[in-house]
Specification:
This protein has 90 residues and is mainly α. Helices cover 37% and strands 0% of the residues. It is elongated. Residues 72-84 have low confidence and may be disordered. Bound molecules: zinc ion (ZN).
Length: 90
């Protein structure tokens, strides 16, 4: 098991890791809903715009803080499955 890179498991593992991360983000968003802080910027406490929440339902910030990487990903609306990068040709 030297070269695992082109083994399909590597791709599955990446997708699984993405999914686990997304589940964590969803859990966190649900917790924010429970605590009444969903839709409030975690940085400046400003309300997160409806447009932003529609695009990024798991957004933690209002989007005015480019220095903060919003770990929430864009909603996969119409973008298809998560892209898995791998060398298609040798
Ligand atoms: Zn903010």
């Amino acid at each position: 098991m030297a070269a695992v890179d082109d083994h399909p498991y590597a791709a599955y593992s990446a997708v699984l890791s993405d999914a686990e991360h997304l589940l964590d983000e969803i859990d966190d968003a649900l917790s924010r809903l429970e605590h009444g802080t969903y839709g409030t910027c975690e940085h400046c406490r400003a309300p997160i715009g409806a447009d932003r929440l529609a695009e990024l339902p798991l957004a933690r910030t209002c989007g005015s803080h480019p220095q903060l990487a919003d770990s929430a990903r864009r909603a996969p609306a119409g973008d298809g499955p998560v892209a898995v990068d791998g060398p298609p040709a040798r």
